[in-house]
Amino acid sequence: MSDFWKYHNKPPSAGRRLLLLSHDEVIFYRRYLLKIFDKKGCYNDLYAKNIINCTNAEFTELTILLGSLSKISNTSEISYFNISINKHFTDFGWREFRQKLSQYKKREQKSHIIVTKALKARLTEYQKKYQLDSLEQVIDTLLTDGINE
Fold it and tell me: How far apart are CA 127 and CA 138, in angstroms?
């Protein structure tokens, strides 16, 4: 099975080709995909926005297939899932969906902490004093120095 999307219409002449999901991506995005697929009215929303091109029953089948995939899924199961995705999603829809998955991955990799204004001012002073690029570097430096002492 190719890693590339098989276009339903004419493939674009420029830009990056669409990719199907790799094994690691299926495992990483599985929970998020199930959450999206499980929402009430999700099928109707996806169908109305020209993202998915299948019947409600086929969409339910796709959801069940995704739910059955586990962390130890073999290559043939992932390939079958990708074939189903390629069959049921429109070219436009898969591009949109991949963008949503990318945003999800970025959100999962970031975390927000709450600090007081006074603490932020001290961190900013430290940043200027040691000419660091970001507050993240300041915290990393302080933690590294604290661990090495």
Answer: 6
Q: Which two tokens stand for residue 88?
A: 């049921």
pLDDT digits (tens, 9 = 90+) for 98-112: 888 888 888 888 788
Q: Domain ranges in the chain?
A: 23-109, 117-148
Please give the angle made by the CA atoms of 93, 98 and 103, to the nearest 5 degrees. Answer: 125
Q: Which residues of 58-78 are buried (b: 16+ CB within 10 A; e: fewer)?
A: ebeebbeebeebeeebeeebb
Judge if pTM exceeds 0.85.
no
Residue 29, token pair as written in the block: 């995005």
CA distance 89 to 39: 17
Each residue's pLDDT tens digit, 51-98 = 777 777 777 787 788 777 766 667 788 888 888 888 888 888 888 888
Cα–Cα distances in Å, from 114 out to 120, 121, 137?
A: 10, 13, 17
Please tell me whether residue 4 adopts helix, strand or coil conformation: strand
